[in-house]
Design a protein that fits this description.
Blueprint (H helix, E strand, L loop, with lengths): L2 H19 L2 H20 L15 H39 L2 E3 L5 H13 L6 E5 L6 E4 L7 E5 H6 L2 H16 L2 H28 L8 H42 L2 H11 L9 H4 L20 H12 L20 H5 L9
Helix pairs in contact: 1-8, 2-3, 2-7, 2-8, 3-7, 4-6, 6-8, 6-9, 7-8, 8-11, 9-11
């Protein structure tokens, strides 16, 4: 891919992402409206139900008015949530995945590869993190310069050769260069708010009994339906942002390494061996995540076959028979002693 064409694609994709993220305020409004409907359905409270002069008020209009009045409170809560996530996102991800920081002394060859790629772009080297897992995966995190990090798994280092790992590092570094990680983390934070609230509302419906008051059951059902739509749209937006950016990151890796074949062979080895236990919001950051959900609507990543096809068509890559990665069922986690002392020598020893 030529640099100019790639940059134009990045600009267009960033514009689409901004438009998608701009939809989150609407989803927040829809969610608050759902809360008002459910509250009204369960409590039956309405100041004008018995008003003689005004007549019985429309409960849906009343809920809309209450939503407008309470929206500032919801925005404050969302801002507090975002501030907490802004300062604690890396710690939360580390706890969820078991990642730990490593430096040059832990793996000099890996550190040098990443450092050389960063030097070629005149940027500060991100922090390196390692997950002691036999699965083959990697991801980038961070919101601003000085906070960016690239995490790889032990399985990735043991089963990919040097060129392939350099390609993976280039892929994750592209996410940082294009600020993909910032967009995806922000999207995950907002989607997390909506998902959490929607789940709470669903539990209210399951365990709270039937709505009381005039038409309470109908109000509860409509409220839960609105909350479900908000949750569904939030998830789809977040997944769509993640899917589109994987193609750009693959192309960016080729721009950095000048080696499309290495990116292709890395994807071939990772395919089928990338499962890594982590929350749904974190899996969207991964190099590969096979979970597709309903008709692929909730897929966080495009199929690896399509990513490889794009590298062949636009980057001039060649598909060859992949080096046999161990079947998923035969991969076992290394013992603590094997991890550091008795590991079989490879390109990172």
């Amino acid at each position: 891919m030529q640099a100019v064409g790639l940059q134009t694609y990045i600009w267009n994709n960033n514009l689409r992402s901004a438009v998608l993220l701009a939809g989150f305020p609407f989803l927040l409004f829809l969610l608050v409206y759902a809360v008002q409907l459910i509250f009204l359905g369960y409590t039956g409270y309405h100041p004008c139900y018995d008003c003689v002069a005004q007549g019985p008020a429309n409960p849906f209009a009343y809920a809309l008015q209450a939503t407008v009045q309470s929206l500032p409170v919801a925005i404050v809560v969302a801002v507090i949530w975002f501030v907490i996530a802004y300062f604690a996102n890396q710690g939360i991800i580390d706890l969820a995945t078991g990642a730990r920081v490593i430096d040059r002394s832990d793996d000099e060859a890996l550190y040098n590869l990443l450092e050389n790629l960063c030097i070629s772009r005149g940027m500060k080297t991100p922090t390196l993190r390692l997950i002691e897992s036999p699965d083959l995966n990697a991801f980038a995190t961070g919101l601003h310069e000085g906070q960016f990090s690239i995490t790889v798994t032990r399985g990735l280092l043991e089963h990919l050769n040097q060129d392939e790992i350099e390609a993976v590092l280039g892929h994750e570094l592209t996410h940082i260069i294009n600020r993909d990680v910032r967009t995806m983390i922000v999207a995950a934070v907002f989607a997390g708010i909506i998902s959490l609230a929607a789940q709470v509302l669903a539990r209210m419906m399951l365990y709270g009994g039937r709505g009381r008051g005039r038409g309470g059951g109908v109000l509860v059902l409509v409220g839960v339906g609105a909350a479900a739509i908000a949750w569904l749209l939030a998830v789809v937006i977040r997944m769509a942002i993640s899917r589109r950016r994987e193609f750009i990151a693959d192309a960016g890796s080729v721009e950095l390494t000048k080696n499309p074949d290495a990116m292709i062979s890395a994807l071939q080895k990772v395919a089928g061996h990338a499962h890594l236990d982590a929350p749904e919001e974190v899996r969207g950051l991964f190099l590969e995540n096979r979970e597709e959900g309903f008709f692929g609507l909730f897929a966080t990543h495009p199929p690896i076959e399509k990513r490889i096809a794009a590298l062949v068509e636009y980057a001039g890559g060649r598909v060859s028979e992949p080096a046999a990665a161990p079947p998923a069922e035969t991969i076992s986690a290394p013992s603590p002693d094997e991890t550091n002392a008795d590991r079989t020598p490879g390109p990172w020893s």
